[in-house]
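Retro notes (design track)

What went well: tokenization of the new backbones is finally stable.
What didn't: we kept losing track of which sequence belonged to which structure.
Fix going forward: every design gets posted as structure first, then sequence, in one message. First example under the new rule, 495 residues:
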């Protein structure tokens, strides 16, 4: 155990610091402080010393330089080695074994101000240096870098004003995490990126949510309420699917819970919207709508009949905006060209998983015909469409298409047969004729059962990755029943 005998306190936010100062005073701990912190503690009637008196050097450059002095950092970094003790005596360096620092509110200033000079002035130099020095010398120095640690410190002060090495090391780890995060936010700002954006909440109301990045580079919001955590996930899913659907014709997508529930490619935007909605007009309620074409007034008049969260398009005609802005909470987004990152990350256990972004999108030329019968042109286009949609749908998934329209989907199932049955049942529920339709699976068929069920329900063309030890069973069934099957050679799991 090491007893605290002297402390340096320099905090921007003075909330709740008075209890600590009182306890330090009661335990005869010598306190050094600066500027506003010194004035605050003095008014409490607590005896303390100015850092300027310690260093014999005034605060200069409008307070930019206060604590950056060998006597301060020597006191914090001093060890019990003979040479350190000799240097301390020679240069009259005091022991400082507790450092309490609250950094300038850089992130908060970025959010509240557009004044670059003001933001720059909120980059803390001395405070970060004090934290790093104290954390480095955790064997001898206690480092408090956040008000959230005050209760722990008070517990230590009540225990004979002493701390053990385990406690000090834990605080050191938290300190370096703090300075690393602080520096990353400064880097993001100076690099032209936005920093953390607080959201209304996370995936659920009891969870806090944040976005780290620059949404202004992705889109322009021209109407509606604040975008939520779940909204952003759906937006991401929708625009990634749109990006992979290469067509000069109007495309209309409807997403719900990160999955496409409506997709149609047509000659007119209105037709594309109507046929996309027809895929599943129940799930579309409260969904995310996305298109590759400018929204016209005629289409807007039809869209406005549906309750939706977000409409994404490259632009909107003036007449369309008048219609769509009739409801103030509707989020309308002008999509910009997005530079997608190459790395996909997610948290896992006590760390992160990282992988390359799934940038592979198959075309018909990438498919290999493995049956005696090849699909005709219309079915070829439907197979490509189904394959692309499957890539952007939660696994396990089955996608059924016909005439460039999504007509059935089963997603997120633990059994591929369950996914297939879900897709078939959903298609029938919304009145689609499955005869002559096409199917895509995000992974291979381990047995021929899915192919057999597909045939029984009128599906005649299939694309799948292939690679099962029993691929031949599925191929043989297709050949016997005049079905076409193609292998993509690529699996697109989405977990």
């Amino acid at each position: 155990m090491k007893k605290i005998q002297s402390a340096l306190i320099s905090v921007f936010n003075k909330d709740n610091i008075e209890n600590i100062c009182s306890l330090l005073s009661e335990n005869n701990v010598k306190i050094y402080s600066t500027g506003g912190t010194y004035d605050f503690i003095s008014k409490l009637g607590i005896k303390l010393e100015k850092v300027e008196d310690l260093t014999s050097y005034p605060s200069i450059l409008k307070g930019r330089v206060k604590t950056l002095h060998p006597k301060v950092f020597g006191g914090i970094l001093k060890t019990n080695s003979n040479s350190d003790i000799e240097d301390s005596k020679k240069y009259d360096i005091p022991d400082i074994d507790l450092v309490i620092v609250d950094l300038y509110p850089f992130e908060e200033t970025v959010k509240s101000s557009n004044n670059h000079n003001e933001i720059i002035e909120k980059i803390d130099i001395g405070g970060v240096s004090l934290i790093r020095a104290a954390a480095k010398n955790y064997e001898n120095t206690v480092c408090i870098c956040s008000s959230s640690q005050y209760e722990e410190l008070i517990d230590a002060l009540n225990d004979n004003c002493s701390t053990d090495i385990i406690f000090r090391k834990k605080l050191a780890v938290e300190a370096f995490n703090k300075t690393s995060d602080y520096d990353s936010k400064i880097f993001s700002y100076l690099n032209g990126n936005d920093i953390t954006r607080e959201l209304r909440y996370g995936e659920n109301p009891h969870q806090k949510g944040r976005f780290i990045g620059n949404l202004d580079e992705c889109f322009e919001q021209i109407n509606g309420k604040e975008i939520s955590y779940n909204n952003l996930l759906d937006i991401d899913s929708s625009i990634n699917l749109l990006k992979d659907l290469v067509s000069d014709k109007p495309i209309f997508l409807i997403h719900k819970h990160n999955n496409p529930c409506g997709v149609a490619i047509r000659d007119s935007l209105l037709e594309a919207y109507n046929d996309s909605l027809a895929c599943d007009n129940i799930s579309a309620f409260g969904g995310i709508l996305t298109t590759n074409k400018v929204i016209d007034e005629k289409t807007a008049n039809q869209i406005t009949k549906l309750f939706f969260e977000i409409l994404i398009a490259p632009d909107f005609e003036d007449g369309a905006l008048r219609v769509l802005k009739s409801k103030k909470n509707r989020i309308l987004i002008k999509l910009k060209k997005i530079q997608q990152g190459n790395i996909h990350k997610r948290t896992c256990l006590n760390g992160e998983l990282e992988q390359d972004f799934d940038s592979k999108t198959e075309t018909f030329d990438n498919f290999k015909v493995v049956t005696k019968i090849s699909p005709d042109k219309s079915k070829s286009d439907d197979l490509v469409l189904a394959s692309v949609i499957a890539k952007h749908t939660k696994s396990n998934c089955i996608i059924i298409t016909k005439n460039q329209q999504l007509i059935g989907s089963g997603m997120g199932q633990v059994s591929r047969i369950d996914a297939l049955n879900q897709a078939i049942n959903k298609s029938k529920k919304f009145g689609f004729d499955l005869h002559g339709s096409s199917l895509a699976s995000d992974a291979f068929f381990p047995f021929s059962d899915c192919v057999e069920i597909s045939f029984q329900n009128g599906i005649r063309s299939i694309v799948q990755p292939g690679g099962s030890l029993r691929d031949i069973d599925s191929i043989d069934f297709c050949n016997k029943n005049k079905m076409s099957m193609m292998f993509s050679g690529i699996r697109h799991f989405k977990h």
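Added context from the reviewer: The radius of gyration is 32 Å.
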